[in-house]
Amino acid sequence: MGPVVVLVLGLSLLLLFSIWRQNSGRRKLPPGPTPFPIIGNILQVDIKDITKSLTKFSKVYGPVFTLYLGMKPTVVLHGYEAVKEALIDQGEEFSGRGRLPWAEKANRGLGIVFSNGHRWREMRRFSLMTLRNFGMGKRSIEERVQEEACCLVEELRKTKGSPCDPTFILGCAPCNVICSIVFQNRFDYKDQNFLNLMEKLNDNVKIVSSPWMQIYNVFPGLTDYLPGSHKTLLKNFDDINNYILKKINDHEESLDVNNPRDLIDCFLTKKKQEQENHKESSEFTNENLTMVASDLFGAGTETTSTTLRYSLLLLLKHPHVTAKVKEEIDHVIGRHRSPCMQDRSQMPYTDAVLHEIQRYIDLLPMNVPHAVTRDIKFRDYIIPKGTTILTSLTSVLHDPKEFPNPDKFDPGHFLDRSGNFKKSNYFMPFSAGKRICVGEGLARMELFLFLTTILQNFNLKPLVDPQDLDTTPVLNGLASVPPSYQLCFIPV
């Protein structure tokens, strides 16, 4: 039998297996477009803007439907009711982490974001407790954020009102907050190690939001052998993890269990306690600590800095909104003290603006993939254990029933008729349920303190007419990335 015949026979068998597998798996799953063998529905999806495709499919197949991104099914939940029913009402069953091939290679199932089962629960519990100030030394996290806000203002003063792109400076501030929590100390904005860390984190968010990475996630076995940005992504992760591991080794040499300085010390103390108690199969290992710290940098730096960057762009675009926020800052905080979190309850308009920014920009349109932890019945369908679940956060944050004119930036979405702040169950920029973002409290604190401190000290001046500013994201994969722009920070 010649090699050509063997190749044709092999491809034919693969094709038949693909058709059989898809047909047998589709019987009890939610409906969806008919997949092609092997490649599934990938040709029917706009990989540059998957959320648009999901909305289009939901109009045909309803709020719960199935897509084949490759040979494996992915169940999509579209709209508040379906997302709430899964992530909140059946939170335990939908608490698994779905497949994301680049993350599986980078994290190897360790850390918080991409782990599962017992490991995920242990790492999540530890991280939540530490971020809530358990054993974090004498300074609270709020004080660390306030300190960084002051440093941010000083950096912005150095621009002397000249036009500047705020991307770098707004990236430094949240990254330094994570450095302070994980490594005890912040860095100078010109420190070379800090700059290298920033560059790799910034590079990674652009790569994972690119169309190429959507293709890689569908065909990892094939694209692994091709050149591309996925190689850069994994190299960046290795460099970040090696840097963190070196810090861990330094901490081990100077550890004082009675005086923890930061998150690394808290973790190493817990590790030591479990060793002394002869606890077998402990999750508190240096390898896991490296990934927990890496997750905090990855999830807590670029997301916050991108939101800050988008925030300033929207404030430039809507000067009447900015004027109202500044008026509230003058009235509640004044000019002679730093903003603090207690101020937020007395600043309903500012609170509404911050919520509307996060709703409008829709930072993580499809959320991070979930998976079901067992075979479950969901709305008369059977979803097998391990099936990847995509929850469309766009469909929740831009629901016209809850937010009239959802594509319009309007802080009134979060204000009642008396001008008081109005909560909404549809506000899910941090996801919802068991897998809600560990750093939600920290991120909300940073957004409030950084933005109020900037507006307390500067007037924002655009370089073009506000009406000509474009707020359309330039990347819309895993994250929505705003277009580049410049502005002037004019000291008050």
Which key features would you list for this structure?
alpha+beta; 8% strand; Cytochrome p450; globular; Cytochrome_P450_fam2; 18 helices
Which structural class do you get from the secondary structure elements?
Answer: alpha+beta
What is the fourth-level CATH superfamily?
A: Cytochrome P450
Number of domains: 1
**Rg calc:** 24 Å
What is the fold-level CATH name, i.e. the topology?
Cytochrome p450
Ends apart, CA distance between termini: 82 Å
Biggest sheet: strands, sense, closure?
Answer: 5 strands, mixed
Low-confidence stretches are 20-24
Q: Please tally the helical runs, counting DSSP H or I stretches of 4 or more residues.
A: 18
Give the proportion of residues in helices: 40-55%
Portion in strands: 5-15%
Number of strands: 11
Q: Give me the CATH architecture, please.
A: Orthogonal Bundle
Order of H and E elements: HHEEHEHHHHHHHHHHHHHEEEEHHEEEE
Mean pLDDT: 88
At the first level of CATH, the class is: Mainly Alpha
Question: Per the principal axes of the C-alpha atoms, what is the gross shape?
Answer: globular
Strands of the widest sheet, in order across it, are: 1-2-7-4-3
